[in-house]
């Protein structure tokens, strides 16, 4: 038994380690990598794991459970209240409209209204796991489409509570057949009593979270044992999930509510830190289990029907979401990402279909087919997202923006700014306040619209395109400022400028030290690390508040800044993981500490020395 379990663990981990990096390298994202891994090791291809996929799924669902708990921790009640308009407007309209369409279609196929309603409510839900993981990987959570997607997912997660409460009322018959494997303690109760029990369980989670869990965590925290706090965090999640499972409610929804209750507690960040590694591992296992659970035998026997229904569901949900996005005035590119990202059936459908089968609302054949459709739609969505990013948006999106008269660049300035988020807008405002006009380009169409309303003349376009830079006046400009936060896009821009506009003075934002090394290797002379100035400024304020003289601190900060910039240029010439790099980097750190001492301030001036290893060794060697 133990050997078999270890073998299964090795298979799962090996599949993930092989497939996920390959998928990431091909630009597919980790979610699709996990799904492909599950398909490959599943019972219908290589057969490394048997057909006990349902047991695997129950275990893997703890990844979704933990993810919902951590999402709940992020959603303080005050923040939820601020999002109420978007959540109720965008989210509720998606659930209601999608459910209504699927309900009418199911009725047209001669299903009774109870079964039709159960199916339609389940199909309206999208995959929180897939969508949030994709948004985080692509750094799109803060975009307009990301915010709309999050609002829809949040409403859907909340909607699971009333959906699961409604299902017992839809039961067409008492459970007279054989006991279900998902039998709960409420299964033999009347429908109305089951509904009351579900509501009572939710209330119990809320009360327990507020009046029992927080005091318990305070007691645990006083022990100062990190491992005990981690065990307590796991106990909270597993305990609430088990309670919800006993009464037939979604474990993920119970832990989501607990997370919201604990969002205002002093333990919020500690809980996030302790649970995040478990969440990542189990979430990957969940995606693998979804891939392994796709019943290719059932799909093979009913290929035309299942594929037609799957494609039909994705098309219907995409059209509904596109309409909602259009009504919300999303731009074309943001609306496409919003609609395609949420077009699949979500993981909660596994729970609702299983619960509906337990209540005899769904027959086993229909339930198995719907679960296959759900898994198939979840597998297809990452592919659709990839197709949208690689093929649809680059063609249709650019074509659309070229047709907009507002995006014709009407000015020629000596300075061009690419990227106008917080970093770039600060530069633009400072230059404008000092009488320097700049031609501003940004590739986020919603940000462009917003900034125009604020009075900025911003043009929508991809600054890595030579033709767009030419139309922005790059031939006559003197300086190109890149305030873009993506190192990859910055490198593309650098290649374009070197090839077509070599006369331009490049001043480029670097997200971190590694990005700065890469730019330095490509002979960019003016590199501005994102947090260097603000970090030094904060350090200056700390020293001043501790009683140091402001003039002395200011001089030390200037020396530190110059040394760090000189050191960066030299370290960029050395391979990062080499022994020489580590040796010189350690010497650099020691020098930076010496610069803040009074002895170095008196006896050492950076203006008198070139930055090299011999100079550092001499400078930091104690004088006899």
Q: How would you characterize the overall build of this protein?
A:
The protein has helices at residues 2-25, 30-41, 53-74, 77-82, 84-108, 113-123, 128-137, 144-170, 191-222, 226-246, 251-262, 268-293, 296-301, 303-327, 332-341, 348-358, 364-402, 422-433, 445-453, 466-471, 487-500, 513-521, 532-545, 550-571, 579-595, 598-603, 613-620; strands spanning 415-418, 438-442, 458-460, 479-482, 505-510, 526-529. It has 624 residues and is mainly α. It has 4 domains: 1-40; 61-174 and 201-398, Na+/H+ antiporter like fold (Up-down Bundle), CATH 1.20.1530; 404-529, Rossmann fold, CATH 3.40.50; 531-624, no CATH class. It has a 6-stranded parallel β-sheet with strand order 3-2-1-4-5-6, with helices on both faces. The longest helix is centred in the middle third of the chain and has 39 residues, at 364-402. It is globular, with a radius of gyration of 29 Å. Mean pLDDT is 76; it is low at 172-183, 397-407, 598-611 and 619-624.
Tally of helical segments: 27
CATH arch. level architecture of the largest domain: Up-down Bundle
According to CATH, the fold-level topology of the largest domain is: Na+/H+ antiporter like fold
Structural class, from helix and strand content?
mainly alpha
Q: Beta-strand percentage?
A: under 5%
Number of strands: 6
Round the Cα radius of gyration to an integer and report it. Answer: 29 Å
| Global mean pLDDT | 76
CATH class of the largest domain equals Mainly Alpha
Largest sheet: 6 strands, parallel
- Shape field: globular
Strand order of the largest sheet: 3-2-1-4-5-6
